[in-house]
Amino acid sequence: MATFTGKENHIISLEEAKKLTSNFQSRLQGDQVRAHYVSKEGLQQLLEQENCVGVRIYYGETDDGKPELVLVGVTEDGRDLTEGVILERTMPCPPYCPSVSDLNH
Fold first, then answer.
1. Over the stretch 49-86, which tens digit does the pLDDT of each residue have?
2. Kind and range of the H or E element at 41?
3. Alpha-carbon distance 12 to 4, whole Å?
4. Is 27 part of any domain?
5. Bridge pairing between strands 54-61 and 67-74
6. What is the pTM for the complete model shown?
7. Burial annotation 24-45 (CB, 10 A radius, 16+ → b, else e)
8. Is 91 among the domain residues?
9. Domains held by the chain: number
10. Domain housing 49
11. In the chain, what is the greatest distance between 2 CA atoms, to the nearest angstrom?
């Protein structure tokens, strides 16, 4: 099993982010989900759990077929903290989209 430190670097440039989102969004039709909003408070509750060094994001789907994300804390030995805080109920874009964003085409 992988070892995680919580200090892994996941930062990319705006240009890289634009390319990734553009690649994905070019295949979307109509009002298909292109992003999700998660609150700072929810993320803090998830990250502040004992032994949590990061977050794993699972892809999910609602009963009516819409994409959803499930976020769970992860320990340094790669285990999901499934007995603690688990996040969902994200706010999809659309309809919760920014009016202006380099990442929303």
1. 999 999 999 999 889 888 889 999 999 999 999 999 99
2. helix 40-47
3. 19
4. no
5. antiparallel
6. 0.85
7. eeeeeeeeeebbbebeeeeeee
8. yes
9. 1
10. 33-105
11. 42
